[in-house]
Specification:
One of its GO terms (molecular function) is 4-hydroxyproline epimerase activity. This is Proline racemase. InterPro entries: Pro_racemase_fam. Belongs to the proline racemase family. The N and C termini lie far apart (about 40 Å). The protein has helices spanning about 35-45, 45-55, 90-105, 190-210, 260-270; strands at about 5-15, 15-25, 65-70, 75-80, 85-90, 115-120, 125-135, 135-145, 145-160, 160-170, 175-180, 215, 215-220, 225-230, 235, 240-245, 250, 280-285, 290-300, 305-310, 315-325. The protein contains 5 helices and 21 strands. The chain is an alpha+beta fold. Strands 9-10-11-14-16-18-19-20 form an 8-stranded mixed β-barrel. The chain has 2 domains: about 5-145 and about 315-325, Roll (Diaminopimelate Epimerase, Chain A, domain 1); about 145-310, Diaminopimelate Epimerase, Chain A, domain 1, CATH 3.10.310.10. The longest helix has 18 residues, at about 190-210. The structure holds 3-hydroxyproline. 3-hydroxyproline binds near residues 63, 93 and 258. 3-hydroxyproline binds near residues 91, 92 and 255.
Length: about 350
């Protein structure tokens, strides 16, 4: 059969957010670090991401991870994260999916009751601890890269909205955080469309005014995600909040978002709202949960940073082979404005 691509994928979701995992059909690329490999895909092989994430094979609310040999010899595997608009340096739901797939398909041997795995990501090495039973990952906790607030109460003029106050933080991806109540917004599933429209508007305004740059890797710069924050509340002595992360090009993260949780921990710590070791539960738009804590404090460049650990669960949903027929008129797929938030021309 005349196919120009044939790719083996394990379908997976973490607390609702799709993070499929490519386990075959894509060869390794050159690079001394996983970030180099990310840049290689971004600049030379982006058609793979387009093919898998755009319609008709993909949809606006999904991600695909690519397992590759690690660059750092301390790691068990490397992986790259492909999202609709970018290659994310790190991602919580995606590392939980990738670990679950690696262990539940035997690509990395599972030991019960606990398996420790080190994964090489474009943001650095991440240690993952999976609680396993009967061949299944019951949950996966990752020790994220340092998270830090770059700006608190940064003021930006948003067309049609006036001045908006935001925080800017890194949690493995760069975030704009905005207090939903300060804009008179209610964060829930019913208001999702309105929230996404406003989030994209604010994100574009912040992007135009401020370029965040990671002090240790200037290649990590710019925003792709906005997080609405709602006030913390106490449940049985634990801090809990709803998470509402809008991922470009304009849709809600279905999970409680691991990098968003990390960014929020960094902001909360900078504001004196959480201490090292304290548990913070983040709930998604679907009501699913990530349980997080600050496992230590560090510095990144001039910024004080926290070391977040985040725990969640993932489930395999399919084993599929995706192909590209040589006569397919859409070798990189397509997007239609009813499902994809298309930026104004
Ligand atoms: O959990 C996370 O960090 C992510 N979920 C999808 C978008 C972010 O990468």
């Amino acid at each position: 059969m005349p196919f120009s691509r044939s790719i083996n994928i394990v379908g997976c979701h973490a607390e609702g957010e799709v993070g499929d995992v490519i386990i075959g059909g894509v060869l390794d690329v050159p690079g001394k670090t996983m970030f180099d490999k990310l840049v290689h895909f971004e600049t030379k092989k982006d058609s793979l991401r387009q093919l898998l994430l755009n319609e008709p094979r993909g949809r606006s609310s999904m991600n695909t991870n690519l397992v590759l040999p690690p660059c750092d010899p301390r790691a068990d595997a490397g992986f790259l994260i492909m999202e609709s608009e970018e290659y994310a340096p790190m991602s919580g739901s995606n590392i939980i999916c990738t670990t679950t797939v690696l262990l539940e398909t035997g690509m990395i041997p599972m030991t019960e009751p606990v398996t420790k795995v080190t994964l090489d990501t474009a943001a650095g090495l991440v240690t993952v601890t999976a609680e396993c039973e009967g061949g299944k990952c019951k949950n996966v906790e990752f020790d994220n890269v340092p998270a830090f607030a770059l700006e608190l109460d940064y003021k930006v003029q948003v067309p049609g909205m006036g001045q908006v106050s935001v925080d800017i933080a890194y949690g493995g991806m760069m975030y704009v955080l905005v207090d939903a109540a300060s804009l008179g917004l209610v964060v829930d599933n019913q208001h999702a469309r309105q929230l996404v429209e406003i989030a994209e508007k604010i994100k574009r305004a912040v992007e135009a005014a401020y370029t965040p740059v990671h002090p240790e890797n200037p290649g990590i710069r710019g925003f792709s995600v906005l997080e609405y924050t709602v006030p913390l509340r106490m449940e049985a002595g634990t801090k809990v909040a709803m998470n509402a992360v809008v991922v470009s090009p304009g849709r809600f993260d279905r999970s409680p978002c691991g990098t968003g949780t990390s960014a929020r921990l960094a902001v909360m710590h900078s504001r004196g709202q959480i201490k090292e070791g304290e548990v913070f539960k983040h709930r998604s738009i679907l009501g699913t949960e990530f349980v997080s804590r600050i496992r230590g404090i560090t510095k990144v460049g001039k910024y004080s940073a926290v070391l977040p650990s985040v725990k969640g669960r993932a489930w395999i949903t399919s084993f599929k082979q995706v192909v590209l027929d040589i006569t397919d008129p859409f070798p990189e797929g397509f997007r239609v404005g009813d499902q994809w938030h298309l930026a104004p021309n």
